[in-house]
Design a protein that fits this description.
Length: 181
Amino acid sequence: MDCDVLTLAGIWNSGPSHWQTHWEQRNPKWKRVAHRDWNNPDCHEWVDEVDAAIAMSEGPPILVAHSLSCGLVAHWARSESALGIRGAFLVAPADADAESFPSEAVGFAPMQLQKLPFPSIVVASANDPYVSIERARAFAQAWGSRFVEIGDAGHINGESGYGDWPEGEKLLGELCEQVPV
């Protein structure tokens, strides 16, 4: 896949069995955006870290986000950064307005529901504990994203059986082909 990619893990980082980790291992040029405190993420601080990582990219990247980081991408898009990206692949967006949202994460609510100024795909599960399928669909509609529902897939992570996840990598490849270089 010929894409410059920055991965954005969710709260607590993506562990060794997570699809993001598998994809990074196969694509050593892809970079995971580091965060100072994975256990107590602060949205405003993380937005700045994402912006710095985009600035260090060779060209405008595609952001590959999971869970909490999907909302992070929406917050970054509203940050008035002078930098641009090619697109975003947003998997299992956690609902910052829901009771199930981790209390350790601060500054993510309310969910940003403005249209994203770049192409995007939202991938969601019908039984995700951090977002209802209706809310995930509403996020995709508000963001102007293509919406892909993959059935009962939990939180679409290693614990849900989505380690290597070739179907997701195929969807990301479709996004890479769709966006201009």
